[in-house]
Amino acid sequence: xxxxSGEDKMAEPAIIQSVAQELDLxxxxxxxxYAWTLGGIALLTGCRVDDSDSVESMLRRVSRFxxxxxxxxxxxxxxxxxxxxxxxxxxxxxxxxxxxxxIPDIDGDDxxxxxxxxxxxxxxxxxxxxxxxxxxxxxxxxxxxxGWSAIGKWGGVTFSTFLQRVGADTSAKYVGLKCAxxxxxxxxxxTALHAQTLLTLSYDDQVLPPEYGYPLRLRMPTKLGFxxxxxxxxxxxxxxxxxxxxxxxxxxxxxxx
Length: 257
Ligand SMILES: Nc1nc2c(c(=O)[nH]1)N[C@H]1C(S)=C(S)[C@@H](COP(=O)(O)O)O[C@H]1N2
Ligand SMILES: [Mo]
Prior knowledge:
257 residues; Sulfite Oxidase, Chain A, domain 2; four-stranded mixed beta sheet; 6 helices; 26% helix; OxRdtase_Mopterin-bd_sf; OxRdtase_Mopterin-bd_dom
C-alpha cells in the first residue's frame, strides 16, 4: 500500500487505544493481547519494498492480524460504533495504491454504474438515478491495516436497498466491485446486506470528493479500509469468488465481519 506522510497517521499506541476503547471488556482483552501485531504491521510497513522477505512477512502479519483480531473488532450481528460529527477526523486521510496525482478524473455526466451477474435488472445507473434512491448517512471509523484510523461521515443509499432494486439473488455468495482505477474487491453477501453497508455519493454532506472515491464508493464500517472500494464503476453478484486487488496479493479476504 502507498506509504503516507506522518500527519495523517495516528501513532501506533493511539490507534490501539482508540480501537480498544470501542470494544467491550472480553473483546478488549482479546484485542490488547494481539495488539503487538498491529505494532508489528506499523514497523513492517516501513520495510524496504524491494526486499521480498520483508514484504512477505508483512503480509503474513497482516493476515494474522485479520484472522485473530477481526472476530473481536467486527461482529456481523452487531452494528459498528457511530460517533458525533464533532469527532470527525479533519482533514480525513487519503489513501490508495498511488498518490494524489493518480486519482481518477471522472466525468459525472457521462458516468454509468454497470450492474451484472445474478440480478434481474441489468440496466446501468446514472448518478441522477442513483440520487433518487432513499438517502441516509453515518459517522463511522475507517480502519486501515497500515496502522491508522479516522472518523468520517458518509452519505448514500443503503446497499441492501440497492440490491433489492436490481433484483439481486441474495442467496448468492459474493458481490464483486470494480473501480475506475483498476482497483477491485469483493464481499460476502451478509456484509453486502448489513444495515451499515452504504453505496455512498457524499462525504461530509458534500458530493463525494475525487480523493474519497467520486462519484461512488461502497462504505462498510464492518470491514477494513481496503475492502471499501472508491470510484466504483461495476457491481456484480456471483457465486464465483472474485478476489480483490490486495486480497490477490495475500491479504485476508474476509478482513472484517
Ligand atoms: N478504488 C480504490 N479504492 C480503494 C483504494 C484504492 O487504492 N483504490 N484503497 C483502499 C484502502 S487501502 C483504504 S485504507 C481506503 C482509503 O480511503 P480514503 O482515501 O477515503 O481514506 O480506500 C480503499 N479503497
Ligand atoms: Mo488501507
